[in-house]
Design a protein that fits this description.
Layout lengths: L1 H34 L5 H5 L3 H20 L6 H38 L3 H32 L2 H5 L1 H6 L1 H11 L1 H16 L7 E4 L2 E8 L3 E6 L4 E5 L2 H4 L3 E2 L7 E9 L5 H13 L4 E13 L4 E9 L2 H22 L18 E2 L8 E2 L2 H5 L1
Antiparallel strand pairs: 1-2, 1-5, 2-3, 3-4, 6-8, 7-8, 9-10
Helix pairs in contact: 1-3, 3-4, 4-5, 5-9, 11-12
């Protein structure tokens, strides 16, 4: 009877005690979250319930397993398995706690600062810091797991002796990966590009959606995703429309007839912009920038608070101006003259004047 009750008491007690401690901790965090609603820390810490329960249960079972006296023939294997579970769950819990602290810090910073560019820069740095912490903790956890095996401890001396050669070989083999990792850190802390920035890369216009240590994802205007190595942004030129202030100046071109009313077009541009919500009211202008034998080029400059709004202003101005010209000044639109030239005093040919015109011979002599 004792051989049956002892394992039940030890194992069952460890599980029940884990549930009670976990429930009590969760209640405390929930109460703290309600009292301190200005910070999301306590609510974020509650996301670590599962690794917290695993740590408690594995630690209690590992400490009390010898007293249970169950499966003693496999005592070493079970003990090592519980140790591995304890190390893995502890690493998981540390990553969750670090992520909660970093996210809380970012939230407080975002609330205190209203500069969108600075907030995006901090967001990029926070994301990469979280991933670096997770990678470091994961590597340490794997190393600790390997050290629980006696064979790995015995091979430690030989591994350390060959660390220099292995490091050289690994450095050569992972040269591209390491360069991307350092480029990712350079982007995060060098403020070159941030999450949410509007960029133009390889002729594609889009918004930076994700930045990791090795790659960067750009979401284009037509909802495609372009994934590029971060080393691209440290070795090649690219356009960052959100660098500094997001305000932009847009250009709209029209090709019109030489008789187009330019002054009236300036007044109409002013009226169109006043009715366009996307125009920020900073500046506008309309000038003749070029001429050809058949048309002249008219350019309008408009301003907006960011890249999205400047696109909206440009298309609205272009459409409204063309509609106005068609309705009120149709002669101002480009025209191609397909009729035959007629000299002064020419008379119609016998075919009715459809194709050729004959001249008076006496006038032709003059």
């Amino acid at each position: 009877m004792e051989n049956v009750l002892r394992p039940l008491i030890v194992i069952g007690g460890s599980v029940v005690l884990t549930l009670l401690i976990g429930w009590g901790t969760d209640r405390l965090l929930s109460k703290a979250d309600r009292r301190h609603s200005e910070t999301p820390l306590w609510g974020l810490l509650r996301r670590g319930r599962i690794p917290y329960h695993l740590v408690l249960c594995a630690a209690l079972l590992r400490g009390s397993y010898d007293s249970a006296k169950v499966l003693e023939a496999h005592r070493v294997g079970i003990g090592r398995t519980l140790t591995l579970v304890l190390i893995g769950s502890a690493a998981w819990l540390v990553i969750r706690i670090a992520a909660a602290v970093v996210e809380t810090t970012y939230t407080r910073y975002a609330r205190a600062h209203h500069d969108a560019a600075r907030v995006r820069r901090v967001r990029t740095q926070v994301t990469l810091i979280t991933r670096v912490v997770a990678a470091v903790v994961g590597v340490v956890a794997v190393a600790a797991m390997l050290l629980t095996f006696p064979a790995m401890r015995a091979a430690g001396a030989s591994l350390l002796a060959s660390a220099g050669i292995i490091g050289i070989v690994a450095g050569v083999a992972a040269q591209s990966t390491l360069s991307n990792m350092f480029a990712g850190l350079q982007i995060a802390f060098g403020d070159m590009v941030r999450i949410g920035d509007t960029v133009v890369v390889d002729g594609e216009w889009g918004t930076v959606e994700e930045i990791t240590l090795t790659f960067l994802t750009v979401r284009t205007w037509d909802e495609r995703r372009i994934t590029m190595p971060v080393s691209y942004f440290t070795s090649k030129p690219f356009e960052n429309w959100s660098r500094g202030t997001p305000q932009m100046t847009g250009i709209v071109y029209w090709h019109v007839d030489h008789s187009a009313p330019v002054e009236a077009m300036r007044e109409k541009l002013r009226d169109i912009l006043r009715e366009c919500p996307a125009w920020d009211g900073r500046a506008y202008g309309l000038d003749v920038t070029d001429t050809t034998p058949n048309t002249m080029e008219v350019r309008a400059l408009v301003t907006a608070k960011d890249a999205d709004d400047v696109w909206t202003v440009r298309v609205a101005v272009r459409e409204a101006m063309i509609r106005w010209l068609v309705t009120h000044h149709p002669y101002a639109l480009p025209r191609v003259n397909t009729a035959d030239a007629t000299l002064p005093g020419a008379r119609l040919s016998p075919d009715g004047g459809r194709g050729r015109r004959a001249m008076d011979p006496q006038r032709a002599e003059r």
